[in-house]
Each structure stands twice: as structure tokens, then as C-alpha cells.
Amino acid sequence: MTEALCKRLLDEYAAVRDSLPADVVSPERRQEAIDALAARGLPVTRDENWRYTNLRPLERARFAPAAAAPARGASGTPPPLPSGLDLPAGLGGFARYTFVDGAYAPELSSPREQAGLTVRHLRQAPDGAAAQAHSAAVLRLPRALPASSGLPEARLALLNEAFATDTAAIHVSGAAAAPACVELVFVALAGADKGASYPRIEVSLDPASRLILVERHVGADAGASFVNCSVNVDVGRGAHLTHYRLQRAGARSTWLDTLSAALAADARYGLLAVSTGGLSARSTTHVQMAGAGAQLALSVAALGDRQQVQDHFALVEHIAPRTRTEQTFRGIASGRARVAFNGKIAVREAAAGTDSRQSLRGLLAGPEAEIDVRPQLEIYTDEVRCSHGATAGKLDEDMLFYLLSRGLSPEVAQRLLKWAFLEDVVAKIEIPELRRQIEHGLAGQMADAASLKELL
Amino acid sequence: MLKIENLHVKVDGKEILKGLTLAIPTGEVHAVMGPNGSGKSTLANVLAGRPGYEITAGSVTFQGRDLLGLAPEERAREGVFLGFQYPVEIPGVNNVYLLKAAVNAARKHRGLEEVDAFEFLTLVREKMRLMRMEESMLSRGVNEGFSGGEKKRNEILQMLVLEPRLAILDETDSGLDIDALKIVAHGVNTLRSPERSLVLVTHYQRLLDYIVPDHVHVLVRGRIARSGDKSLALELERRGYDWVTGEAA
Fold it and tell me: Of A163-167, A220-224, B115-119, which range is least confident?
């Protein structure tokens, strides 16, 4: 990080510090985060594991949150959503909470009571009324900086920590008959010149509880926002979390993201991300398999076209014995896009009996596109089973010819094969309604909704 | 229907077809037999337009048109069908979608409207029964997890639904047990008609017990070495390919 950039970061922080809500992150923790970030510096492409990210937008970005600006009118109502930005249809049985530029938007939300579930947004109304309504809720919020924030790959979480304007805090307790169902929608409206958006989520599952979480990030089609998202996940003993993350930020946006998760014994975490939006998108995922028998299924689909950059870094640490990971990545780069997935598996000394499988595949669909899939293994113990397959290539010629020989045009055949390629991930979506939505979105993204519509 | 004249084809710089001449009149079934490496599959692939084959001389006309000048998808829409020796698996693209897309591509080419969804499914189900295929296969990926025999039956199913003018079946009998062979042969026979021509590319005579050809040709080292009626296949079975290859040398 250049000195000038560091100084600007600190100046911007100093200018808004007093207006940042203390109930979201305490002033002490904010200070600690900004100091740590200033000391470590923002990532640069020379850094290991950042070389595929487009970090230039950081130099121009305004770090101060858009939500801290007086976006709300005197009546306290937020500005209406611009035309052309339709929120995705709600899912049956899900409670929805919507945040616009990092601030809770009750008029776009539809809470729904469910056994054992508490959802709060931590920034309370100034009159304290809302605060009282929630005061009974017990929430274990981490008091120190998240463990991951020490990782060089996770340091953008510190930026979120310092500037966060609100938090969606989800807590599930008890073993209910059916999993709790929550949908979080983060809308980025403000342009990067007006300020940043800081989506922030804390998820905590008590032992044996269950949650299905759908997390969406949307923006206006041509939106040019700066979004820095931070998610912390804590899955208790024997708890099950199914987590869908759908990134469809505005086409000119910079979307940065850090997710840290810790899994207790026998916990199960299914994390499925579909990333199609933004001009420059980067996700860092750090999962600690801390309890014996914990299981993780991490699936990522990424679609890049034009000049888009879709970069994913995932570190899975097997710390406890008999932990299991299954990782699937399918990425397509068209146009001049760059799509990367860097999947690192670390098996620590005590993690005997680890079973990890990686299937990483990239598809090159343009002469100027770039794909990089990189499996990395670090093993510090015996008795492990780690397998990985990583390929990057073009469409299969035999498949293509087969479709042509049946009369399909080359354009349709190619799109069909790209579609089929992503299905390895999309087919894992267990909510039919959501799967349909995503399939429609992908078909639209491939600019061929017409020829693919019959698949849907 | 199909007229091949003096066809020379190279694969990876090596000449495989060396002046092949063959005419398939409308309404006839022709078998092209030959030992391994004689150029049978090359012929089938060249007719369907597979990339990677260099045509150095000769011509192929299909219903009076230059077939070699057409892209693979145009040949298909004109009514040329290749039944693959090794049908590829395409997970994620389901069978019924492919069938429908194929039928509609041909219909559009002929200026017809898209097929009615209900009528289409009724037709496909009927053909599936004929091929003794389970209906659940429709919603599976193209050939995904199919056994060798199921893949070949699926090829014939596609042919029955597409109703091509010219069908080239490349070693459709290979890898089939006798029951599957009968099902496949029965499917093919239902398609025989005075308006349609069939080319059976095969190594063995066995298939021809069930699909009786009008003519049999023996391909040796890239040329038709001998032609005759169905008795030629039986004679080949008895005497072996050495009989013809020796003569052709």
C-alpha cells in the first residue's frame, strides 16, 4: 500500500469515526481494526494469493460508508429503489431482511417468526424503541477481532470491521423439526464516488440447530458501487448450516468479500456460491474444521464475461481428526474475463483421518479470456486422504460435434455446453425455487435466455 | 440420394480414403463392411462433417447438392443423420431437450413452426417403447451413465424421432448383446422406406441377419474392393476378410 493511500484511508476513517454506530462495532474494535490494516497494508497484486484480483479500484475508492452520509430523508425513509432494479422474488417459508448500502431497510423486509431463530440488525433506532424490542435476544458476538483477520488473505475484513454501518446477526438455538430459513438481501445503490457499502453478517448456530441461509448481493444493472462484505460463521456441535451466496453486483462494481467460518465437532456446512456480477469481484473464504467429524461441502460457480474479474481464494484448515471437505469449482471465462479459483487445503498435525476432495474446473470460452484453477495441499500428518483434480480448457470438441451433428447451431451448442458445465454446481441447490431463479439468472447472463429457456 | 466420387481423405497427413466411389440410391439399404483400419469410420465421419478430416480430392453430392460444402449442422437439418460408434456423454444437457432442439432446428430449416410440446412428448414416448427404453432416461443427461447398449439404443431413438433422409450408422452393432441387437435392428427396420436411404457401417455380418441390406460393399485400404448383394456378406463371414484383401492387393 502506498503511503498516500494509507494516509487517505486513515483520514477518511478519522473523518467519519464519530458517526459510526457503536452498537455495530465498538469504537475500540474499529480502532484496532484500522490500525491493524494500516500496519499490514491493503493487498496488492504482488502479494501471494492476490495476483488475480483487480485491486486498482482500491486506489480510487472512497472508504467512508455511503450509509453514513445523510441518505435518509427527514422522515427517516430511505430513497426508493431505482427503476430497473427489481429485488429477486422471495422464497416460500423464508424470512427476508434487506439492507441498502449497508443499512437495514425494514420496508423491504419481511421478518417471520421461526422456532429458535433470532435475527437482529445491530444498529438500533436512535430513540431506543427498536433496541428495547430486541434487548431480550441473546447473542454471542465475538469480542475480539475474528481469528481469520490475521490472515493476509482475510485482511479486507478489517476494512469492514472499521467502517461497518450495520450487521445482520443470526442466531439459531435448539433442535427444531425443520431448519430455520433466512434470506438476506444486500443492495448496493451508491456509486463508488459517493461511498462504500459494508454488508456484514454474523451467523451463530447452537449445537444441533439447523439453518438455511440465502445471501444475495444485488445492484442496479449498470451500477458502479464499492462493496466490501464480511461474514462470520460459527457452526456449533452437530449443527447444520446450508448457505447459498449469490453475487450479482452491478456491472461496473467492485465487490470484495471475506467469509470466515469455524465448524465444531460433527457440524455440517454446505456453502454454495454463484458469482456472476461486478467488474472486479474477489471472495476469500476461510473455513476452520475445528471439531472432529466436521464436514464441509464448498461449491462455487463463477461466470466472467467482457472485462470481468472473478477471483476466489479458499483456505480450508483441517484442524481436528476425521474432518471432511468436498470442494467443487466450475468457472467460465468469456470475452476478456479473468476467472480464478485458488483452493488451499491445510491438514494440521492433529487432523488424522482427514478426507478432502477437490474438483476444480475452468472453461476458457474466449480467445482473450484467462482461467486459473489452482489446488494447493499442505499436509502435516499421515493417514489422510486428499484427492484433487484441476483442469482448465476449452469446450470438449466431441461434445460440440455431437450437438452439431443433431442440427444445433454452433452458438446454441456452445451455450448449452457452458450451461452443462455449470450444472455440476447448480444442480446441488436443494431449494427448487432458488435453483430455478439461479438458472434463469445464468441463462440471462449467458445472453441466451431464448435458446436455454426450455431447460428451465 | 448420395453419390460419392473418387473421394480422397487424409487424417493427420495420412491418406485413409484413396479414391472411394459409391452411390446409394433412394430407398435402399447399403452395408459398408471392411476390416479394421480400412476407412469405414472415416467415411461415416466425413459424411457427417466431423472436423479433422482433410478432403484432398473427390466429391460427395446429397440430393444433388454438394454435401462437403455444408456445415455439420446444415447436413443434419438437410436430413443426414450419423449414428455414432462411440456416443459421447453430455451431463447437464438432458436427452429430451436435445431431441426437441434437434427436431426444431430441422423444422425451422424447412420453414415449419416449432413442434407442439405435447405431441412431441407423445411421439418420443412411443419411440422409446419401441426401443425398450425407460422413460426416466429422458430427463437424464445425454447418454449420462448409460451402458454401451443404452447409448446405441439412444442413437436409434434420436434417429427415429428425427426421421432423416439418409442415416449412416457407424458400428451400431458393436458392443451389443443379441437382445439389444434385435431391438436396435427392429428400430432401424421400422424406418426403412422408399424415401429413405440407410448406410450400415459394420465389421461383422451379424447385424445384417436382422437388417437385410440391398447391397453390400467391402472397403479395403480406402477403396471399395468389391460390391454385391447380401450373399457377399455371408461369403465374407465364411471366408474372412483375407479373401478380399488378398484380391485387392
Answer: A220-224
